[in-house]
Amino acid sequence: MNDKDVILEVRKISKEFPGVKALNGVDLTLRRGEIQALVGENGAGKSTLIKILAGVYRKDAGEILFEGTPLELHSAHDSLQRGIKVVFQELTLVPQLSVAENVFLESFPLKRSGAIDWRTLNRRTQEILASISLDLNPTRKVSSLTISQQQMVEIARALSHEAKVVIMDEPTSALTPNEIRSLFEVIRRLKSLGIGILHVTHKLEEVFELCDRVTVFRDGQLVSSRPVPETNTNAVVTDMVGRSITTLFPRTHSGRGQPVLRVRGLATDKKLKGVSFEVHAGEVVGIFGLLGAGRTELAKAIFGLDPVIGGELELRGRRLRLGSTSHSAHAGLGLLTEDRKGEGLVLQMSVAQNMTLPSVREFARFGLIRSKAENARSQEYVQRLAIKTPSLRHKVEYLSGGNQQKVLLARWLMKKLEVIILDEPTRGIDVGAKAEIHKLIDELAMAGLAVIVLTSEMPELLGVSDRILVMSGGRITGEFGREEATQEKVLAAAIA
Amino acid sequence: MANTATRGQTITRALILFNELILVLVLVLLSILISIGNPKFISFANVLNILRDSSMAVIAGIGMTMLLISGEVDLSIGSLVAFVGVVTMDVINKTQSTALGVLAGLALGSLTGLVNGLVRTKLKVNSLIGTIAMMMILRGGVYIYRIAAVQNYHLKRAFFEIGNGYVGFLPIPILLMAILYLVFLVVINKSLAGRYLYATGGNPTAARISGINVDRLKILTFIVSSTLAAMAGVILVSRMNSGQPNSGQGFELEVISGVILGGTSLSGGEGTLIGTLIGIIILRIINNGIIILGWNQDLQIVVSGLVLIVAVYLDNRRKIARAKIITT
Amino acid sequence: MSSNVLNRRSARFSLSRFGELGLLAVLVALFLVFTFSSKYFFTPKNLSNVLGQISITMIAAVGLSLLLICGEVDLSIGSLQAVAALPLVLVMNATGSFWLGVIPALAVGALIGVINGLLVTRLKINSLIVTLGMYYLLRGFVYLVTGKVPISDRSGKDLFFMVGNGKLFRFLPYMALLMIVIVVVFMYVLRHTTYGRRLYAIGGSPEVARAVGINPERLKLSAFILCSLLSTVSAILLASRLSSANHMAGQGFEFQVVAAIVLGGVSLAGGVGNLLGALIGVLIFGLIQNGLSLMNVGTQYQMLITGAIIILAVAVDELKKRHA
Questions:
Q1: Which residues lie below 8 Å from residue A388, measured CB to CB, with a gap of 6+?
Q2: Of C9, C205, C324, the CB nearest to A94
Q3: Residues A164-192: pLDDT tens digits?
Q4: A361 close contact with B: CB closer than 8 A
Q5: Which ipTM value was assigned to this complex?
Q6: Of A110, A132, A279, B236, which cross-links A186 as Cys (Cβ 3.0–4.6 Å)?
């Protein structure tokens, strides 16, 4: 009805990575002066699409139309030049330079002599900041700003390029409520300037507070796109999930044994502000939090990977030494990290070697490893977890994501653990393998372990946990039993 | 997708197997070329010569290989070798006991390794820079200890034997090299410590989570590596028959070039002793060739520098090639 | 708001940052210590000597600072000092002209800068290792070509002698004047030109710089060339002081320069530091060397102390990073 107003159109875009089809012929339409929310669960394809629009990924098929004409993007620089600015969570600022220098990073205004015209640079930066009602000294080093302020600088950068489309990727994850309010003000200002804004988020209340339209992706495709006044939370959630949540992850039992791990007042100097909770044997505790809530920090602090400035840990009644990974590991804690390649797997080592890494001492006599025993045990787990690998000696870097994750899970299953912490155990894994991993989590609990699952995927959280803890701003802000938990309650606690 | 995985695996396997094969080929080729220039090169006596001259670098190379696998490096071994030589000779002179002298030398090595390890783990100083600094500290230190060479006033038989003696037809340094090589071959490939080394270098966080005390392991590796280098220093001082404060110049270069040429990666997590052995021998052959062909000895340093650059370049290519093959 | 811009300008000269104030304090303290511990220290002759030595170091330090700021390093500048002196002295001896000797020296310097730069940017080899290899390669080359015998200046050119030994008003070495000009010029470049700010950008966040259309490779190559050229200038001055092309020239020089500028706040990680800090670092080092030799402490102690200072400086740098 208003084709002239359409500034960006995405048609049937597909993108595939080895092992997973991220986008399966997806469509999107963005109008001038429109704030459109893009929602979908993890793996729905939101970040892949915006990375394509940012020029970071190349699309496999489909087309992008910008102001009616087809657009081919070759690089991030390209995308910005054309007028599309994506504000990612990893900010593209140079911390050692000033605000003004970052805003005009591509080209500084110069004097006739060739030197940088600081006066003009700072003045123009000031003007841009004023247009979004931001009061910031342009000569300040970016490293001295808060995340919220840095985000604003990114937006100011978009304006310095006269961007017509601004895409924000989960911008509010690390912000305080006040900062969120300021950000919304800025976004509304952008809208009044006629800029089309795509707001990627999973905070549904933001969608209804700020946006004009809400678009739902699921499994790499467009499911619905409706004006906000014509829809409601339930409809959006249904579109996002596309299935009734509870049936997918049957818990075979939720028996609860003794408290195994007691965390009291755990605090770090960066994120955690005093976290206390306990986990029982045979129980699966799901911990939910949006980006920046402190989940991974919690996992690392418990395990001793990060320095702790306060609090204590008790494992089966005994005080556990903080800050020492070898103590944690020997006491019976296991950690499946979020970043499996960067922190979990030793890529150059074989499947068997990765699996046995924490328990390899068991296979050693007089300091020498007995390969037969090691291989026999590894083979057990390869079969039990249906890990697809040509052989035990295969280097683990060649396995698919799902199988790599299984190797890591096997590693922890192999060791006699008391507590296992799983950080985003099914991130980036296809649906089939996801279900298998959830079954394994169930098995772990049945075997008597205390299982902590950190996740940002709501359906996984609700399906797998006996008890749910919600984190926000480095604190526990909510606790729900399996029966009483709903997405709304959890979300409410997550933005508290 | 499974097909690409196996294909990728075969290519890299080829690249790696290829690597050792290529090295052996280079070795053979070089030997042929040099013996054309001077047939004495291929004589049994000269081959023994080469092996005996390589023994010091190989022994130090064993330690360096382990260090690189764990993700660290040590550039101070050249200065260490000089210091060990001076101290060992001096102690034997003063105590009339070869054993004490050798012990003193080895102890100095272990101490240096300890300091290097602590600088890396406690002060968090990058080992490349830290050991360059240590190289300067030790070189300054040895000149402070003794400006002029320490002559052999003790004339102990045992001391002489270390570097110049024979067991049957086999020079003792070669015997020492063989024994240490075999021992550490087992350690690296079959022992717990070896497994932990590869894990620490391959992914320190994963190693930590698995309960490995990464700091302690690195300190130990530094100590072992420096002690091995000290052993090389003891052999050297025995062969030179005097403790010279200016010896060992460029030794670290020779060892590191040989180790990296042999396939041990600067970035950690991989490396083999056989690669190190072949790499160091190739360098030795080049240096021996230079002498036997009557060329200017200073060419040796030039060649070593060149080899280092080439070796690191190849190491890089290997890394990039493997990154391309990995599935996401 | 315009007052902020003025603040920005004066910030260049203010030492409000803790790091630099601390260093300045150390410098002053050292000065006082040496003045009281040796009667030869605070004499015009000695002070002018110190100024001269510092000039040679600082000129090369400017170049190395440029490299460190953009995230790379060059450990071959000491060997370069020996290499670059060769064409200078040889051509001077053959033609009797100083300037005719300078040209090939600079050319050689630039060439080596290009080689280092290409090895790092095109072949993507770690700059520390590549330049370490060059450190050996070039030194060996000099040994080969000279047979370990210094090549004396037989031209007897006054100009050649004056460059390194001449003084204004019998106190201020011409070298120091040259150094001041170079430092001021490059301070300007680093602060007020797009080129300079981009060096910081690629050192601080190379991915961001690339995403913004800046070509890190080209900039780094230019930085390598500049570093080598400045080291060549320094080499020419050194040759003048030695009146010869000496195969031992510059031995250990690169480590001293690195230690001095890291001490002065130029971070090995890249993106951080400025020439003022580098200058203070070089001054501190120069004072220590001078003070020690006046107290008859041999060069072996200097080497030891340099090594210790490197460890200290980097350890402190690491601490700063972790508590940023």
A1: A399, A400, A403, B2
A2: C205
A3: 999 998 887 667 778 888 889 889 988 98
A4: yes
A5: 0.82
A6: A132
